[in-house]
Amino acid sequence: MISNSKTNRQFLGSPYRGGDEPFKGAGSIENLPHTPVHIWTGDPREKHGEDMGHFYAAGRDPVFYAHHANIDRMWYVWKQLGKKRKNFSDPDWLESSFLFYDENKNLVEVKVKDSVDEKKLGYRYQDVNIPWIKSIPKPSSKVKSKDKNKFLAQRPSRKFVDKFPIVLDSVVSIIVKRPKKSRSSKEKEDEEEILVIDGIEYDNNTEVNVLHAHDHGNNKKKKKNIVTCLRLGLTDLLENLKVDDDDSIVVTLIPRYGLVKISGIKIEFED
After folding, report:
1. Which is the most buried residue in 61, 92, 117, 179, by most CB within 10 A?
2. Domain shared by 269 and 195, yes or no
3. 171 burial class (0-12, 13-18, 19+ CB within 10 angstroms)?
4. Which domain of life is it from (predicted)?
């Protein structure tokens, strides 16, 4: 919501147009908390995780409306933070439409542009104090020992890799070069530094602890693997860790569930 959502793409997700492969990369609001709540609330005994675990059935569960009212409010709060936190202006997004039946069984078409301004929908959220907006996470305590070998021994067993693609079957670390470092406040305001873990490929039939997409019509029998990406904001994180002058960062990947392939890791700057 804060450090990982400074641009509309970071918050709302990567563009997805007709003809594109699905799962281009979800935004932070989709990864947490939207999708996990749907999956967690859905019934694992049902074929497609009904009701909340599947797009066609989610509205049958009364908790759907409480959940989406909260998601909508978080969207509203995000926009109030200002700066570059604005909705997409791309007509491909604004003109996207959804068809559904209303309470009178009439087929209704609604476009995205019809729902991005809550005032036009006839409601507003109450302005209240939100303490967590200014609650900056503190880094873990620094290792006090000057014994480098002792410090390294405390780390989990891992290996460094520098060639892709990789199959994530063990703990691996990657040294990622930073194209720019020691940027000024204005440069940081103009562009967000983003870590991109690209070409994340996994079997849709297997539960993966990150990036498990809320099923919007593609049931779990689909044979083709999902290929997506993960984008993480770095600017605030590197400042908090006081490592903004470093030439590179070390990314460590730890496998949890299922077989995952990764095609590459890099750092980009997004305005």
Report:
1. 61
2. yes
3. middle
4. Eukaryota
Residues 80 and 197 grouped into a single domain: no
Give the whole-angstrom CA distance, residue 267 versus residue 196.
6
Round to whole Å and give the CA distance between 140 and 241.
9
DSSP string, 182-203: S--HHHHHH-EEEEEEEEEEE-
Same domain as 191, residue 117:
no
Where are the alpha helices (H) located in 48-165, listed in sequence order? 63-80, 91-94, 148-153
Amino acid 149: pLDDT: 53
DSSP at 11: H
Over residues 139-179, the pLDDT tens digits come to 776 545 445 455 454 555 678 999 999 999 999 999 999 99
Residue range of the domain that includes 210:
145-271
The two tokens of residue 154 are: 């405390």
pLDDT tens digits for range 80-126: 998 899 999 999 999 999 998 999 999 999 999 999 999 889 999 99
